[in-house]
Amino acid sequence: MNGKDQKNSIIAAVLSAILPGLGQIYSHEWRRGLVILIGLTAQAALFYGVGAQWLIGVMGLIWLWNIWDAFSLAKGIRVSTAAPIILILILNLIVSWKVTDIHIPSFQGEQRKVIGNIVSGLGKPDFISQKTRQITATAKYIVIGPGAPASIKQPAVKHGEPSITLSPSKVEKGTIITVTGVDFTPQSKGSMILLGADEIPAGSFHTDKNGRFEMKFVNDRYIPGDYFVQARMVVPTGGWSLSSTLKDAAPRMFETIYLAFIGTALSLIFALPLSFLGARNLMSGNAFCRAVYGLVRVMFSVLRSVEVLIIAVIAVAAVGIGPFAGVLALAIHGIGALGKLYSEAIESIEHGPIEAIKSTGANDLQTVVYAVVPQVVPQFIAFTLYRWDINVRMATVIGLVGGGGIGYQLI
């Protein structure tokens, strides 16, 4: 700012004291003044909105700096903005710490158990399981009362097969029933289950070396009638097989990978040609080309600015729950993301090959094919693979809203 452009420093300071940034605008520092005016107002509103009104007073230091800055600018001296920027960052860090309630957690017993299960599960992935078979034996007892059967006909048992007997077999509520089991797998554990609309555990047992056991449980049934008790034992048969968890999850995992693959492929089909229309160095020849360039870049910005989960919710509403909705969400979001990356790669190419090709009399299409494409192919491949990597992660998340894949199984 030269001498004749200088403004009255007192007036500039007073204006900034009345309204931060106004003194800078008075000194023809429009950008600086608008940043201070809008930025400080928005920052104060943010602190007020999150309940940190006391920090608004601390911002008085920035208000004082703003007055000094306006005073100095009017004299042609530029003051460093480092101090107010650092102060604002520190204040926002304090607010973030308070709003997010960062603290050292005190885990309760149930929380510690859950965390222990998670850590244990990560240390022992459920990929394979030992082959087993289930051994069962069922018996029946009667709760005495009106309408109860007069006698009991126990389930038929073949000789040598596991069986249980109950004593007594006719009981009232609160009676202790003794269960005796024979011909089970020796030295093994099992559980006793009360059968009905809901299976109720009645206790556990352990067989001796002869496959026998004896246990007791209290009858809690009070409605007259007959009831069944079942002894269950799971014993290994030798060998290993894929676990049920892996059998359920693996197809969904593969579905997630292919969902991301086809979503990337569809976005590539559309983003590739559009990226050439969104490159400034190729679309600056005339007003029409510049208009097309502007429209394409706006489209890229809109598509990638919408959260993929929101697109997935809309896609689920349009085509239903399933992987197709996830594919559409990834493809639509990917067009904006890949289009921007591709077009910026085109804008960063060397212009020497373009001028060389044009000097031979090549038209625009030939220039793109022989001068532009060879320069951007390596970056296009890298960006595409990177996008596929991102899509695999996002495919997991969009499954939570019905977009298919492993995320759908998780939710």
Mean pLDDT: 88
Strand content: 15-25%
CA-to-CA gap between the ends? 62 Å
Taking strands numbered 1, 2, ... along the chain, how are they ordered across the largest sheet?
A: 3-1-8-5-6
**Tally of DSSP helical segments:** 14
Helix content: 40-55%
| Gross geometry | elongated
Number of domains: 3
Rg over alpha carbons: 37 Å
Output the structural class: alpha+beta
Question: What is the highest CATH level, the class of the largest domain?
Answer: Mainly Alpha
| Strands, total number | 8
| Name of the CATH homologous superfamily of the largest domain | MetI-like
Low confidence ranges: none
Report on the architecture of this protein.
With 411 residues, the protein is of the alpha+beta class. Helices cover 55% and strands 16% of the residues. It is built from 14 helices and eight strands. It has a five-stranded mixed β-sheet, covered by helices on one side. It is elongated and about 110 Å long. It starts with 8 loop residues before the first helix and ends with a helix. 26% of the residues are buried.
